[in-house]
Design brief:
With about 180 residues, the protein is an alpha/beta fold. It has a single domain, classed as Rossmann fold, CATH 3.40.50. Helix 1 runs parallel beside helix 3, helix 3 packs across helix 4 and helix 5 crosses helix 6. The chain is globular, with a radius of gyration of 15 Å. It starts with a strand and ends with a strand.
């Protein structure tokens, strides 16, 4: 299932979305919900509240501006309230590193699985460990990216191990959410 959440004000929209995701719909002060599609995301987040969360995705070379993906990661992390954050400790930085930084800033324990080498076999071994250790996988990618190790990890976790997963494609104007 896919949902598109518009972000008319970029990062500012994410701050409002964070409030939406952490508030019960019945308690929401908004007279009309600005994100009716966020209900699917809210249900997903709340059903996995307190789980071990793996945050994977594109390394820093794929992002023009790190503010939006960092805000997405922080928004999801605050809404999930995971017991532990699991990271791949990518040597190129990016989503893995940002997730670790944000988790530590919020006092959430971090388990990092850095690759033992630079070849795909080391990354595959690491990605398999991430998928097995986590309860839920979130893959954060730039909008339109066709393939990455994060996507491989998400597919392995959801298709082979039967875990819950969420892919978030980030663009300056919208988020495309894919639930697995």
């Amino acid at each position: 299932m896919h949902s598109i959440i518009p972000l008319p004000q970029g990062v500012e929209s994410l701050h409002k979305l964070a409030k939406c995701l952490t508030t019960l719909c019945a308690d929401c002060p908004e007279p009309r919900c600005p994100w009716p599609v966020a209900f699917n995301l809210k249900q997903f987040l709340w059903s996995h509240h307190g789980a071990k969360l793996a945050v994977v995705g594109a390394d820093a070379r794929w992002w023009c501006d790190e503010r939006l993906p960092k805000a997405v990661i922080e928004t999801l992390m605050l809404a999930f309230q995971p017991s532990t954050v699991i990271s791949g400790a990518c040597p190129y930085g990016g989503v893995d590193t940002w997730a670790e930084e944000i988790a530590r800033a919020h006092g959430i324990p971090v388990i990092a699985f850095p690759p033992r080498g630079r070849a795909w076999r080391y990354y595959r071994e690491r990605n398999t460990r991430i998928a097995r250790e986590a309860d839920v996988i979130v893959d954060v990618e730039p909008y339109g990216r066709a393939w990455s190790g994060g996507m491989w990890t998400l597919r392995y976790a959801t298709r082979v191990l039967g875990k819950a997963g969420l892919r978030v494609d980030v663009s300056p104007k919208k988020l495309l959410l894919s639930f697995f």
